[in-house]
Amino acid sequence: MTRTHPLAFAAIDLGASSGRVMVGRVEPAALALEEVHRFPNTPVRVGGTLHWDVLALYRGVLDGLRAAAQATGGRLNGIGIDSWAVDYGLLDATGALIGNPVHYRDSRTEPAVAKVAEVLPPSRLYAATGLQHLPFNTVYQLVAAEGSPALDAARTALLIPDLISYWLTGVAGTEITNASTTQLIDPRTRDWARPVADALGIDLSLFPFLRHPGDPAGELRSGVLEETGLKGPVPVTAVGSHDTASAVVGVPARDERFAYIATGTWSLVGLELDAPVLTEDSRLANFTNELGIDGTVRYLRNIMGLWMLQECLRSWAAEGHPQELGELLRGAAQSTPLRSVVDAGDPEFIAPGRMPERIAEACRRTGQPVPRDPAETTRCVLDSLALAHRRALADAQRLSGRGVDAVHIVGGGAHNELLCRLTADACGLPVVAGPAEAAALGNVLVQARTAGAVEGGLAELRRLLSETQPLRHYEPMGDHTAWDRAEARIADGGPGTAYDSGSKEEQPCG
């Protein structure tokens, strides 16, 4: 392979609070990433229902591709799209969108959880799909929408990255890593769990054919080329369209004995396995088996993540007391360690609004000191996240039989030095932080491998990351027994604890 310049790929990476378009330039021994455009992702509540403003997102994507054209002289070798999971848009018979997609944090799914459990008890549903119980999984959204005019009129359902891809190319498909978050995929066969859909009356023909990371997903329409200034043809390639699937590709691990924590709005804590773990113990521990790149399984637990801190910042700003994040983290670092902790897996923290008050209420309910100021609240959040990381990693190793020598923190939380240090201390394992842009890098690497810019499997892709991306290392320090005592305070769990669901999963969470 002889080239005089690297190939350039655009990664469209849509998160729950913002989207961005990144340009990755790739050669066999070089990998560079540049952010060319970032835009907000602000949900909108209409008539009591929380929606995604998906047209504003699409406008941001087009603006980002226009910026990518300017950065590359109009020539891109490919585009890949990843986003958050579970949500979808409905199209009518003409291919037009039927209303804005509903946000997964909307409360409409709460009654559907009990309705599904009446037909498929949680143990049967888990044995068939291996997915962690979360009240907003796509299966509950579809059951909640049953009989609605929108679903009755729908002829196609597209998960969010597939919807954006369809608008760019005119080609519809369902990428497998994101499809695996619907709770309608069998992780053993990597195909639809048709008995589950049939039992619940879900029409799987709504979803287009399954495609896999590396598969072609069409080329940019002529109108998109004209609007963005890109020179065609520009192929769109299916990547790990669930952003966590792309983020796990972007983990710069040196061997298989690693754990990952993909941090952002959520913390997704787990291991990369060759086969799913579908035991009853795994279900009771509320672990999920999502599909990854190259036949892998992402065995993980969802934890509330930096959403709690993001919501605290929004609340303080709305009250007229805005906080500067850097100063807040410095104050948190000086606050008393483990003074108060809450269960970061508790669904009481899923909904937006009043987050500082809800944290204070949880501390009061468990007989712990209530945080006295924003710095102490922030320390409570970060201590609680580190404690939840600790418990999830211990459970993942126990349930899978896979040991861990190092923990990789990727995503936005890799910039949070205090969270990284606390996670190393809580887990008693070295932490490697970075890259923060793991999802975009994983997205670019799958495209680059498809285009022949790089070769090999996940090990080779990760070696390139470890040799080209800046990383920070944290060694565990301090008294490990202090974390044992902190965990004991919430070990029994409270009402609705998300991953202590042995006796509670039959009931709606929230």
Description:
The chain has 510 residues and is of the alpha+beta class. The chain has 2 domains: 237 residues, ATPase, nucleotide binding domain (Nucleotidyltransferase, domain 5, 2-Layer Sandwich); 216 residues, Nucleotidyltransferase, domain 5, CATH 3.30.420. The protein contains 19 helices and 21 strands. The strands form 7 sheets. A 7-stranded mixed beta sheet has the order 17-18-16-15-19-20-21, sandwiched between helices. Helix 13 crosses helix 15. The longest helix has 27 residues. It is globular. The C terminus is likely disordered.
Short overview:
GO terms for molecular function: transferase activity. Belongs to the FGGY kinase family. By secondary structure, this protein is α+β, with helices and mostly antiparallel strands.
List keywords for this structure.
about 500 residues; single chain; Nucleotidyltransferase, domain 5; EC 2.7.1.-; Rhamnulokinase; alpha+beta; about 40% helix; 21 strands; disordered C terminus
Set down the secondary structure blueprint:
Layout: E1 7-14, E2 18-27, E3 30-40, E4 44-46, E5 49-51, H1 54-72, E6 78-83, E7 88-91, H2 110-119, H3 122-129, H4 138-144, H5 149-153, E8 156-159, H6 160-169, E9 174-175, H7 176-179, E10 185-186, E11 191-192, H8 194-200, E12 210-211, E13 216-219, H9 222-228, E14 235-237, H10 243-249, E15 258-263, E16 267-273, H11 280-284, E17 288-291, E18 297-303, H12 307-318, H13 325-334, H14 355-365, H15 374-400, E19 406-411, H16 417-427, E20 431-433, H17 438-451, H18 458-468, E21 472-474, H19 480-490
Helix pairs in contact: 2-4, 10-17, 12-15, 13-15, 15-16
